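Appendix B. Chain record.
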Amino acid sequence: DTGYAALLAERGYIVLHPNYRNFAPSDSGENLFLAGYAIDVLNLIALVKSEAGQTWSNLRTARPGKIGLWAFSMGGAVAWRVLVVSSEVRAAFLYAPLSADDLQNAKFFSAYPNAQATLAMPAFAFLSTSPQYFYQNIEIPIDLHHGTADSVVPVEWSLKACEQLKALGKTVNCYFYEGADHSFSGQTGQKLQGRMNNFFDKYLKFAPSTPTATP
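Structure tokens predicted for this chain:
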């Protein structure tokens, strides 16, 4: 969501907002199990790491050790996959995310060609690809937010993710907004913004250096 990206940028964060492959103006590419989207995010993370500190780069002031991930709706399915395969992200904020179960997501997007190809895969494949079976690899804090009246993405998917992550002892804060739909607005949206700011400031913001006293 460009609005949330703008809010983070105003707070001094470098925000990279990638588009999805196969959606204009992006290039086309394979996307079985939505893995293509995750590959694009991983490549973007690699780009940040390679250009951070380079005087010629627009990313020269980036801090590669303080990379955060913000994801909404379908982006949540992408984020789950990134989080279980990469150790480069330091904090993740998920807003009304899709499932970490590839089969659920493929059924959700059943009208899409890539979803049909995914559904045609043998059942055992989903045990090897679905991020929910690899939650143990996540070692970073996660903030998860979902409206209880979401008419697009079932809130039960986030409830299940929270239960599974907590059972594994992961650092996860789960917020469920009574009566809120898929996209938040008004006071609910403001509450989400405040929690987003606090979360990223806590885990990503560099504290000013403390002057060293000299005798």
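Further analysis of this model is presented in Appendix C.
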